Amino acid sequence: MRAAQFIVLSAKARALAHHRYHVAYEDITALATPVLRHRILLNFHAESDRIDSDEILRRLLEHMPPPAKA
């Protein structure tokens, strides 16, 4: 739950840094890895295949389609 709150807060800050008052999909995807990186626990198989938490999050984000335009 806290991770989701920090993603939202950091996405708002990133949007403001890019001179926008709304959060875009790109803000969320850009910040998901830095916010969630330390929350991923790797098992032996991932470590032996040299897969790190960044790779797991990258794969998850690839399968998350952008929201449909209204």
Descriptive notes:
It contains 4 helices and no strands. It has 70 residues and is mainly α. Helix 1 crosses helix 2 and helix 2 runs antiparallel to helix 4. The two termini are 28 Å apart. The model has no long low-confidence stretch (mean pLDDT 92).
The helicity comes to 55-70%
Distance between the termini: 28 Å
CATH names the topology as: Helicase, Ruva Protein, domain 3
How would a textbook summarize the main sheet?
none
Count up the domains. Answer: 1
> Low-confidence runs (pLDDT<50, min 5 residues)?
none
The helix/strand order is: HHHH
Round the Cα radius of gyration to an integer and report it. Answer: 14 Å
Number of helices, where a helix is a run of at least 4 consecutive DSSP H or I residues: 4
Instruction: Tell me the overall shape.
Output: elongated
CATH second-level architecture: Orthogonal Bundle
CATH superfamily: Magnesium chelatase subunit I, C-Terminal domain
Strands, count: 0
Strand content: under 5%
CATH class: Mainly Alpha
